[in-house]
Amino acid sequence: MTDPLLSDLLELALEAARRAGALLRDGRPADLGVAATKSSPIDVVTEMDIRAEKLITGYLSEHRPADGFLGEEGASAEGSSGIRWVIDPLDGTVNYLYGLPTWSVSIAAERDGERVVGVVEAPMRRETFHAVLGGGAYGNGEALSCRPTAPLDQALVATGFNYVTGVRDHQAAVARQLIPLLRDVRRGGSAAIELCDVAAGRLDGYYERGLHPWDVAAGDLIAREAGALTGGRPGLPPDGDLTVAATPGVFEPLQALLEELGAWHD
Fold first, then answer.
1. What is the pLDDT of residue 42?
2. Whole-number Å distance between alpha carbons of 27 and 29
3. Cβ(211)–Cβ(238) under 8 Å?
4. CB atoms within 10 A of CB 74
5. CA-to-CA distance for 88 and 107, rounded, in angstroms?
């Protein structure tokens, strides 16, 4: 890596994610409960989400006090350096609450609005994914590459569902129409991990409606650096309406099908 700033940002993101992952893995209370709810009574926050975000922002601020933040659990600061950290301290909170292993820590760095570093730590899978813009994607230090292109009817595609009942009902209707057209559909519960699984060649594609910047900031960069294509509705970047990531041959037909099925609205 020739840019010393990006090298520094990557090292900070890796260490912050490692520390937060260790806190979440080793510090989970046996009686862990819900600390708050967000969009609905089943969209939950635990005390550990909050503790992990404080750990991450505290560590990064100690090393780069002029940087900005955008965090899922409320961290927000403009900063003056041109660098902003986009943080999901615990992606897959419901999985974590129930003791399921598919959860992660997601940290991305933006420079002047462009994503340049992404790290996703998945402690229970013993995996660390990272990417630097233009430098490729890596999982546990090994270079990643998305799967060779498959026909859409042989594609394994993951998705996720919203916690607002009306939105989720429509998402289920879209998935019901998709399933006969694909090899199969998976639902893991962590957008960051599923984007990394596209990067690692474990999925041919992934889509979801209703994601936030912190859900996708790191995973989107990792997927793209592994050779996947990402976007939202046709001609648009990933956003709250729709996020799509897939191998090059699957991306366009999947995106077109999602547009036809109205996956971007209720």
1. 61
2. 6
3. yes
4. 12
5. 6
Strands laid side by side in the 83-91 sheet:
76-77, 68-71, 83-91, 104-111, 114-122, 127-132, 137-139, 142-143
Q: Report DSSP letters for 127-183, one per residue.
A: EEEEEETTS-EEETTEE--PPPP--GGG-EEEE---SSHHHHHHHHHHHHHHGGGSS
Token pair of 129 as six digits: 């994914």
Are residues 59 and 22 in contact, defined by beta-carbon separation less than 8 angstroms?
Answer: no
The beta-carbon contacts of 19-22 under 8 Å, at least 24 apart in sequence, are 19/55, 19/56, 19/59, 20/52, 20/55, 20/56, 20/89, 20/105, 20/121, 21/104, 21/105, 21/121, 21/122, 21/123, 22/123
Give the residue-averaged pLDDT of 219-241: 97
Calpha distance 225→85 (Å, rounded): 19
Q: How far apart are CA 48 and CA 172, in angstroms?
A: 30
User: In this structure, what token pair is assigned to residue 57?
Assistant: 């922002």
pLDDT at 35: 80
pLDDT in tens, 87-130: 999 999 999 999 999 999 999 999 999 999 999 999 999 999 99
User: Coil, strand, or helix at residue 71?
Assistant: strand
Cα–Cα dist 231/6, whole Å: 24
Residue labelled with tokens 């026909």: 151
> How far is the C-alpha of 255 from the C-alpha of 111, rounded, in Å?
28
CB contact set of 80 (below 8 Å; sequence gap of 6+): 66
